[in-house]
């Protein structure tokens, strides 16, 4: 069908270039700036904070207690794989949430109605707000159902058969008589076996709350003084900071850099990045189990995984485009960005400064804040088979007076969104390979009775040092790249336009910084483990020189007998 002049909704009519003498309705009502409305906003924020706190408390039985629970009751050779599966299944939640969020954001925030004033929005409109709250209701119901099976767990989980055989073997060795020639080895076995027996029999002594409070500072200090534990936690803090920033702001980054909708950005993350991260976690646990990796090889695996993840992030700095031309908005290096007074073509119009209804001139890729800022006086709708397009005509500020298309101009780099996400996904896979080995460094490095507390401290430090400040750091860095802010109630509100080059460099640069810091921590862990192995080898050599000579002599004496056999 051909173009037609449409009945103009109130927002379209208000956005057109009207004579200065015409009465124009105010863009925003003072009622939205009242103290009562602001108090309602604070109440809503407080409710969300309380809900997040309760959600965090509810997750404690799975992480960190569940990690120590699995490691205590599973066989040593199987616990890495079990932990990898636990972490992978835990990652399924964010993957499903991104997919669910992508579907929910296709619906308007008020599902049953569009905004007042006859505004007709689509999901590609920058003013679109999706139904973000609907995902919380669905996920809360699923979490409540998933919590039911925990009521049927036994008070104490039976150990695996291999672990029971190992315990019987340890007890048999400690109780069996030994020959005189094996006195030294028997003494060592009898010294170690009580610790193993105690460790296998119970996780920690049953303490009252008062006793626990008295013991806690000493155990905390002992755990924090452990160099391997401290460095592993610091590396995980850096990795979690990277993940927190990526999870919070990657959808926004994709929207700005590649002109994709919020729903499509969330679907991309849920369908590409999260499954690859799950694959990396399972692979890390499988490698630790299959290759029977000790602390030294676990640290090497973590180092290699983070190194290749760092290398894959280098091309991301160059995958993007500069911000297209936006009429009236200037940004010079070292100058404060602001809104330039528009040229003489706008003098007949009375354009409100706080209005935002972007239009794009397709041939020159110039974007205007509103049809009024382009000098347009009329609106036209062109119907198509699948959708209709809105044009604004008679635009005095556009070269040749050609019509402009409603909506922001698309990025010239939209085709790079899939290669970008593939590189991000591969980097997430390599970073996730380090997840289970790094946990095994903690579980095998601290004392058996301190294991649960050590994992709890690790999770606490991750929340405090990574998940809380990282979104703030990333958000502040992203805000510094804004070139045009909207105003609400006389204060700075949402950012309308960013400098895409600065946005890309600072967002990816922060990710690069956290990956480099994690890599440095794993390098220090490897250096400390090598030094400890050298010291243990030196002590063994110095402590028993006579024993070595006897073994060498007996070896020479037994050689003829061995050759005869």
Task: Please give a quick description of this structure.
With 565 residues, this protein is of the alpha+beta class. The chain has 17 helices and eleven strands.
Explain this structure to me?
With 565 residues, the protein is an alpha+beta fold. A seven-stranded mixed beta sheet has the order 1-7-8-9-5-6-2, with no helix packed on it. Strands 3-4 form a two-stranded antiparallel sheet. It has a two-stranded antiparallel sheet with strand order 10-11. It has helices spanning 10-15, 35-58, 65-73, 79-104, 132-146, 161-175, 183-201, 209-224, 227-258, 262-290, 295-312, 417-433, 435-445, 451-467, 469-479, 500-543, 545-564, and strands at 3-4, 325-326, 329-330, 338-339, 359-361, 366-368, 378-383, 388-393, 404-406, 482-488, 491-498. The protein is elongated and about 95 Å long. Strand 7 and strand 8 (388-393) form a beta hairpin.
List the helices and strands and how they pair.
Layout: E1 3-4, H1 10-15, H2 35-58, H3 65-73, H4 79-104, H5 132-146, H6 161-175, H7 183-201, H8 209-224, H9 227-258, H10 262-290, H11 295-312, E2 325-326, E3 329-330, E4 338-339, E5 359-361, E6 366-368, E7 378-383, E8 388-393, E9 404-406, H12 417-433, H13 435-445, H14 451-467, H15 469-479, E10 482-488, E11 491-498, H16 500-543, H17 545-564
Parallel strand pairs: 2-6
Antiparallel strand pairs: 1-7, 3-4, 5-6, 5-9, 7-8, 8-9, 10-11
Helix pairs in contact: 3-4, 3-14, 4-5, 4-10, 4-13, 6-7, 9-10, 9-13, 9-14, 9-15, 9-16, 10-12, 11-12, 11-13, 11-16
Membrane topology: Multi-pass membrane protein
Organism: Equus asinus
InterPro entries: Kazal_dom (IPR002350), MFS_trans_sf (IPR036259), OATP (IPR004156)
